[in-house]
Protein: Capsular polysaccharide biosynthesis protein
Amino acid sequence: MEETISLQDIFKIIKKRLVHIVSITIIAALIAGVISFFLLTPIYQASTQILVNKESTDQQAIQTQDIQANLQLINTYNVIIKSPAILSKVIDTLDLNLTPTELTNKITVASQDNSQVVNVSVQDENPAIAVEIANTTAEVFQKEIRELMNVDNVNILSPAVLSENPSPVKPNKMLNVAIGVVIGLMLGLGLAFLLEYLDTSIKSEQDVEDILGLPIIGIVSPIPDDQPVTTSNLSRRGRGN
Structure:
């Protein structure tokens, strides 16, 4: 016979295992907090903006094909910025103990739709190094693009600046704690229902009816410890019940 569980049964299980559920949730939140506040290394981010201009050959209004050409050019520049041809020079300039591939993982290049502004963001454990890498990457790209593509249409719009009290972008401590609470709550609920499912002991008359499929026609009353057990007592109890 297929077992079903009602909403009332669910609340009973939760109430019965509430201590376990709350304990597991608190433990998970504490673990997430300790990892976020004490074990994970803070990561800082610095960003610089590059303006890309496409030189026009005449003074006529910009046509649709010119805008499309600008966008394609920016996409090309996004790839060139993270290429070894640029990053190798950045590493040599700053004397970084990194490979171009490792430096690529620290840099994010993005541009908004229909915009000629390219954002170069760098993440590093040291905020000062992140600022240096961002600014040096922009400067090296501005210089090298003249030789790579024979153009001079890149200007540094906004260099990265080191603030007095930089705030890390990673980890998001409160978010991690919230995730820990959610995971702990899920684990606690799952464990509560698992323990209830594995518990096959009979606790009530309803359990007897469910297991045997027979109605209850009588029960045995408990006998106080201080009262002697006699045949007459048992018979009177039986007739009384």
About this structure: The chain is about 55% helix and 10% strand. The radius of gyration is 35 Å. The first helix runs from residue 7 to 16. The beta strands are 44-52, 107-111, 117-124, 154-158.
